[in-house]
Amino acid sequence: MHGRYLIIFSLCLGLTCLSGYFHVKNKNYRISKSHEELLILPTPCHAKTNVMFLKTHKTASSTVLNIMFRFAERYNLTVALPAAQLFHLGYPKTFVAHFVEGFETIGQNYNIMCNHLRFNPLEVKRVMAANTFYFSILRNPIPLLESSYIYYKNNVPAFRSSKNVNEFLASPTKYYHPADYRENIYARNIMWFDFGYDNNAEDDKNYTQAVLEEIEQNFHLILIADYFDESMILLKHALCWDLDDVIYFKLNSRSQDTVQTLTPESEEQIKAWCSLDWKLYLHFNQSFWRRIEETIGLEVLEKEVDHLRSRQKELMETCLSEQEAVRKDDIRNKALLPFQSGAANILGYNLKQDLDNRTLRTCQKMVIPELQYTSYLYAVQHPHKKRKDVGLPLLWTNLQERNVQLPVSN
């Protein structure tokens, strides 16, 4: 008899505890009967601070580099900067670890890597931590080749000896000689080359498929420059960053009057002439949109892109006197003059005159060109080394004020 009471008592006690357990769960968690509601509950995540960005050419990558540098300063992270007086990590040579300043003493303790390099995964992994997030950016090869032609017109033999981009594309082999491939890398499959592969390789189906699969294994995310704002939202989600971490002003862009109009025949020729880049772009453009649909959804993406653009407009109104980029001759502060190349007129910015010191410093970080920012960070991280010479006035002489955040939104 006592045994039966004991069993009943134990059962009641168990049910009481179980009901208490569910009560606690209900207090701490929003339990919903809707599966859709459960899916949209925010998942806690932590900002990734070990990040490697493969900076490709003529793909809006200078704007991404500025985003990376500002993030590094905000969180006092260590950037893997080019050694000595260089502004790239050994490019166009295949990357090796000693191209990074201080690698021999700092070792695998860098947080951010984003200057130009030719990708070499084994050597990059010697520099970056095991949990590093790898990403890069691609651009449609049609506008990319036209941009390269203008920007590298004076440096690339294949471009230099042709009158304009359409003449070059009418018969590229007339101007492009594989023996001069080091000088001509910008004239054919430049993105393929930046990822570490042979830009003159034969377009063999098995070979290209193997390369695409290898890139997928080496990189967590590939962005698309033609959808830059959407790319920034996807990057924000992938890295668990704040919106202000991916706010940007467009850098290293050129004036529209230097753009050469491609004929329809030239556009088709680019697809054949740069067929490796074309396949690379098509493949990762598809995976880009698939990633968005699987992780964010198009409706949320549209809302966040609108928010990003509103915040960008607000900051431009705060910072800029003209509310837009200006031609090189109209840049008042020569410390903010971007590097000029070829026939391109690279645009820059003028800041408002009446900004308080904190806002001024923040706005300067948004518009400072790549070479000047690299030189500044080098001086901060390696104060006993000779500062990289940009050949322009210094924007800052005080190197201590590093952790500057964007003005708070109203």
| Major sheet size, sense and barrel closure | 4 strands, parallel
Order of helices and strands: HHEHHEHEHHHHHHHEHHHHHH
Quaternary state of this entry equals single chain
Q: Could you say which structural class the secondary elements and strand pairing correspond to? A: mainly alpha
Relative helix content: 40-55%
What's the shape?
globular
Low-confidence stretches: 1-39, 400-404
What is the mean predicted local confidence, pLDDT? Answer: 87
Strand count = 4
Query: Largest sheet, order of strands side by side?
Result: 2-1-3-4
Report, as a whole number of angstroms, the end-to-end distance. 73 Å
In percent, how much strand structure appears in the residues? under 5%
Radius of gyration: 26 Å
Number of alpha- plus pi-helical segments: 18
Comma- or semicolon-separated keywords:
18 helices; disordered N terminus; 4 strands; single chain; mainly alpha; four-stranded parallel β-sheet
Describe the structure concisely for a colleague:
Helices cover 47% and strands 4% of the residues.
